[in-house]
Every structure is written in structure tokens, then in C-alpha cells.
Design goal:
Structural class of chain B: mainly beta
Largest interface: A-B, 24 and 26 residues
Shape of chain A: globular
Oligomer: heterodimer
Strand content of chain B: over 45%
Number of helices of chain B: 0
Order of helices and strands of chain B: EEEEEEEEEEEE
Largest sheet of chain B: 6 strands, mixed
Shape of chain B: globular
Order of helices and strands of chain A: EEEEEEEEEEE
Structural class of chain A: mainly beta
Helix content of chain A: under 10%
């Protein structure tokens, strides 16, 4: 019963370094999302993918890129990390659109950029 | 665009006392409303949702929320809280059509005092 799996759970980067956060879901869901969570700001959508082969920008896409590798996997890449990208990142999936269904979240990836 | 406001960032409550977590939304069209809960060091999980029908919705662990269209509110209540209810609670809103994404509030941290 894995659900949504994110790796790594923790990462420390230096400014300017790059990294990729991996996300996989085993529920055969169509839609996948990347959010960031910051204190006092709730969750903000970075990118989403409504179906395999499509991606769209969310509320805060600058500094990030995504790849929907297949139906199961949706990765988030930071090409040149900045301290402002220090955050907890959550991947989520939903069976169809988010409107009537629910989002299933991973346990999060805590990223610190020095 | 829709928005959601959670005025209380922290709510301390004694064990077995009642609690109300407030959520107000802003939208010019019909909406779907959700409450998500985040237990320490975990991802978010759906607590309850209002899509249509009865304005009072309930969760399996004793929480309930009432959709009030005239006051644009969706407050979360529980008549008697338990230590295990300690968590952060997020209200979320989306339009009830199209492929709109969830907009989350900034969260309310519920602390249960023994």
C-alpha cells in the first residue's frame, strides 16, 4: 500500500546546485501535482500534470521544471537552487481532476538551500 | 479567482473540550470545499468535503463542517477533542466546473492540552 512515494526525504544543497525530486504513485491516477509548503503560507502549487505527456504551470513555477515520465512518475527539478527554494515539497496525485476527487499526498521532501 | 482565509494560525484547546476552526472563502461562482489534515511529519490527507447536497458533512473521526453560502464559510467543528487530533488543518476551495486547481488556506495548528 505505497500510495505516493517521494525521494529523497531530506536534502541539503548549496546555492547554484541542481537536484531532482522524484515522485511515483501506484494508484493508476491520471493527475499529479507538486506543491511547496512554507510556514504561514499554506500549500502553493508549483506545477501539475493532468495526464501523461502534459504539464502546466501552477502558482509559483519560477525556478522549477517538471517531467511526467510516464503515468506513474512526476519529477521536479531545480536547475540552480536558491535559498528562497528552501521548503517542504509535496507530491500529490488524483484519479481525475481535483474538483470532485481528493488529492493523495506523499510524505514530503524537506529541502534546505544554503 | 477563488481564495480561502483561515484567520486562526494556532488554536490551543483542552482535551475533551469542543473546537471550531474557521474557514471563509471568496468566490463569485459555486465552489467545492475541503478540509485536509496534516499530522506531524506526514503529508496531507482528506478529512471531509462538500460537493453538493446536505450542507453538513461529517468525517469518520467525529469532525463535521457546515457549508454556509450566505456567510461564505465552511467552519470545522468537533464536540470533544482528543490528544490524537493534534495536527495542522487546511481548508481548500475550488470551482465546481472545469479543471480548476485547489487553493489552500494558510492552515490552523490545533494543539490539544492534556
Amino acid at each position: 500500500n505505497a500510495g505516493v512515494t517521494q525521494t529523497p526525504k531530506f536534502q541539503v544543497l548549496k546555492t547554484g546546485q541542481s537536484m531532482t525530486l522524484q515522485c511515483a504513485q501506484d494508484m493508476n491516477h491520471n493527475s499529479m501535482y507538486w506543491y511547496r509548503q512554507d510556514p504561514g503560507m499554506g500549500l502553493r502549487l508549483i506545477y501539475y500534470s493532468a495526464s501523461e505527456g502534459t504539464t502546466d504551470k501552477g502558482e509559483v513555477p519560477n525556478g522549477y521544471n517538471v517531467s511526467r515520465l510516464n503515468k506513474r512518475e512526476f519529477s521536479l527539478r531545480l536547475e540552480s537552487a536558491a535559498p528562497s527554494q528552501t521548503s517542504v515539497y509535496f507530491c500529490a496525485s488524483s484519479p481525475g481532476t481535483v474538483n470532485t476527487g481528493e488529492l493523495f499526498f506523499g510524505e514530503g521532501s524537506r529541502l534546505t538551500v544554503l | 479567482a477563488q481564495s480561502v482565509t483561515q484567520l486562526d494560525s494556532q488554536v490551543p484547546v483542552f482535551e475533551e473540550a469542543p473546537v471550531e476552526l474557521r474557514c471563509n472563502y471568496s468566490s463569485s461562482v459555486s465552489v467545492y470545499l475541503f478540509w485536509y489534515v496534516q499530522y506531524p511529519n506526514q503529508g496531507l490527507q482528506l478529512l471531509l468535503k462538500y460537493l453538493s447536497g446536505s450542507t453538513l458533512v461529517e468525517s469518520i473521526n467525529g469532525f463535521e463542517a457546515e457549508f454556509n453560502k450566505s456567510q461564505t464559510s465552511f467552519h470545522l467543528r468537533k464536540p470533544s477533542v482528543h490528544i490524537s487530533d493534534t495536527a495542522e488543518y487546511f481548508c481548500a476551495v475550488t470551482f465546481n466546473f472545469g479543471n480548476e486547481k485547489l487553493t489552500f488556506g494558510t492552515g490552523t495548528r490545533l494543539t490539544i492540552i492534556p
